[in-house]
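Hi F.,

I've been meaning to write this up properly since the lab meeting, where we talked about keeping a consistent format for the predictions we share between groups. The idea is simple: the sequence comes first, exactly as it goes in, then the structure tokens exactly as they come out, then a line or two of notes. No screenshots and no reformatting. I'm using this chain as the first example so we have something concrete to point to.
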Amino acid sequence: MLSITRVQGSTDLFRSLATQRAAAVAPVAAAAASSADSVTISAAAREAQKNDAAAKTTGIPLPQAVREWFTKDFPADVIDEAMSRLAANKAQGVLGGDGPLGLPLLPENQALLDGFREEMRSLSANGHANMDSEQSARFNLLMNLGMRVQMVGWKAPMSEADVQREFDVSNAMARLGHENPDLLPEVVEEPVPDTKIIDINAQSVPSVWQERWAAAGLEMPEPTISPQRSLWLQMATAAGFSEDEFMTTVRDLGQRLAGHDLTRAVESLISVRYGELLAEEENA
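Output, unedited:
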């Protein structure tokens, strides 16, 4: 029998993607390894005990292959990058920490994503419940790598190894934050007003972004939002950019900037162009 668990990265993946997209990505789902594998009763009992313990501590039993995403021996450069991103989020907040997400993929990265999806279809051709543990582990990994491609595959051509590194950095951030909560932004426990609740089907820019732009003194376009398209691209179009012009400019920024700095640069880019558009309309 197939069980499904949900795994979420340290940067609050659902909130980031739901608010920015488009690119939309919900929390990462991982299919558990098939229990059709032959095991002894004692081994099955031990596994049940481990799953029960995991459920009590994390709320969900994670397949071994998924647990290994977080417990693996990460290279020093991955740990360094994870610590750098955690420090930036600690200082500036999570919102905007991943840069703009869900922009149109480069053709090379769309082909990579299509390849992941094709392999997933092949692995599950006989039904998810009939995948062995190796097939299930690969399926889950491809699912998560595909999420990463959709998030950052707009910047530059990527190989599977590049995507794996991005995934490792995210998982290292999750582990480091779990081991040392002081690395994470302070969480203020208070009721969330209805206006702060993100609705991915809403047709307007989420209030958290509206407030962020207002606080920075930026002019925000107010397009009617379609959840099937990038929020960033829709705002850019409403500001007067063509898709090609905007993506060429943003990809150039993406070669020089990252994280919060890139998000702020893209916000400013859209705001300045929108201000120019408003001025032209006023003087027409």
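Notes:
The chain has two domains: 62-186, 207-283.
The first strand starts at residue 4 and ends at 7.

If this format works for you, I'll send the rest the same way.

G.
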